[in-house]
Design goal:
Elements lengths: L2 H9 L4 H24 L2 H18 L9 H24 L6 H10 L8 H11 L3 H12 L4 H8 L3 H27 L1
Length: 185
Amino acid sequence: MLINSLIERLKDPAQKRLAFHELVSTYQRRLYWHIRKIVLDHDDTDDILQTVFMKVWSSIDNFREESSLYTWLFRIATNEALTFLAQKKKRKGFFIHSDEEYLLDKFSADQYFDGDELHRNLMLAVLKLPEKQRIVFNMKYFDEMKYEQISEILGTSVGALKASYHHAVKKIEESIKIVVDNEIN
């Protein structure tokens, strides 16, 4: 699939529906897991993903191609996921003391998690990170994105992203070290 050709077909009313189906089948899985790592809940992720694709459908004609299609899709998905978390926190009011508490509760209740203890400890350490560090870590470590892509998606300098990733890695290492030390003692 040539991306430029796909964009042209998405903007052509006669080809839009078929091209959109191709776009969804190409990016749905990656976007799902990107959103899922931010909000954790399967049902919430599905809802957000649907919103993302509705926004893409309605705004593809305004896509100026200043960034890649991939970057544009991930920017929309990231923004929608973060907006969802902010709205969820606002609706819950004082019942949620922090994003970390909300995410830890979601992760603990996730019936689909099937990782081993090491993976579980890694995920718990990631969830304890501040939001920006968590998102940067997920995009760099799990999604294997380059800093330049992350920079375009998040609108942050590469230097700031490298610093965020470095701090995230250090905090994760410390968190896992504490767990391992507690298991040994």
